[in-house]
Amino acid sequence: MADIDIRRDVLLKPYTTMKCGGPAAFFAEPGNAEELAEAFLFAQKEGLPAVILGAGSNVLISDKGFEGLVIRIGKNMSGIEVDMKEDGGIIRCQAGNMLSNFGNTCVSSGLEGAEFCCGIPGSAGGAIYMNAGAYGRQMEDIVTEVSYWQDGDIRKIKGDQAQFAYRKSIFSGMKDAVILGFTAEVPAGDKDRIKAYADELRQKRINSQPLNHPSCGSTFKRPEGYYAGRLIEDAGLKGFALDGSGACVSEKHAGFVVNINGTASASDVYRLILYVQEKVLENSGVTLEPEVKFIGDFSL
Ligand SMILES: Cc1cc2nc3c(=O)[nH]c(=O)nc-3n(C[C@H](O)[C@H](O)[C@H](O)COP(=O)(O)OP(=O)(O)OC[C@H]3O[C@@H](n4cnc5c(N)ncnc54)[C@H](O)[C@@H]3O)c2cc1C
Q: Which of 59, 130, 180, 260 makes a 20 to 30 Å CA pair with 53?
């Protein structure tokens, strides 16, 4: 019988890359499917909503926190196994492992095609949920199977059944489904070339992204036919901060809203997101859709 530790009033800010937001009424970090079931049972008995958190690199959590149970899939479910074959490798990665660790494991094993994962600061589970990608590749290109938990059962689907699309997957529309892990098949390649390419992509990020300030990465999805960053820049918002708050459109990359020195509240960030949407719509007629997921109550 599992006996999961469910904590009360846990501040969520440190569990996000945006470094803002209030507490979770309840918080659990299950280590296996049994504990996960126990966590959901707890929420059900208490009549509370539950939300899944990975590495918190694509979420904005309300300053009021979350009046329910936050189930964090992290270090307690983070195994990774590499099965090397003659012409490639089969990698089984648990959802709580970091995607960058998965990418680095492929690179050091001489497996080619997962280098794009190295600089994405999400968990493996969050990467499946979002179909994370960069530099022309995304999770759907390498994932052959996803395992997930729902209603007390562990289920598996093939990669081509996961309905991967731009920054979404079948899981985006499923209630209380928890991604447990994925299997990827990655072909073998030249180790030096793979490492050099991973280094090149890392350097590109350093050169183009404001990695010295907390953020959620690209705040908005790329609208078809446009770049969100360019539209925001064209609206004159590069470097813009509403009411001089710490929430600011990055000077380095207008597609990122950053939290300068961690001084912004979630409501500062939220208000800025709304403002940017309004100004871009006014200026170019394009509606920007947030890529970031909002957790909790944002009524102003
Ligand atoms: C500096 C920076 C750079 C970034 N660059 C990129 C990039 O190049 N490409 C890109 O695609 N993204 C990028 N991102 C965004 C982010 O890293 C990805 O979206 C990532 O996949 C989110 O994973 P996560 O574990 O942090 O998910 P979270 O932010 O914790 O959650 C995101 C969503 O996934 C759900 N979720 C998370 N884990 C699970 C699970 N195990 N089961 C079910 N649902 C789950 C959550 O409920 C939530 O709805 C960047 C972010 C930052 C801060």
A: 260
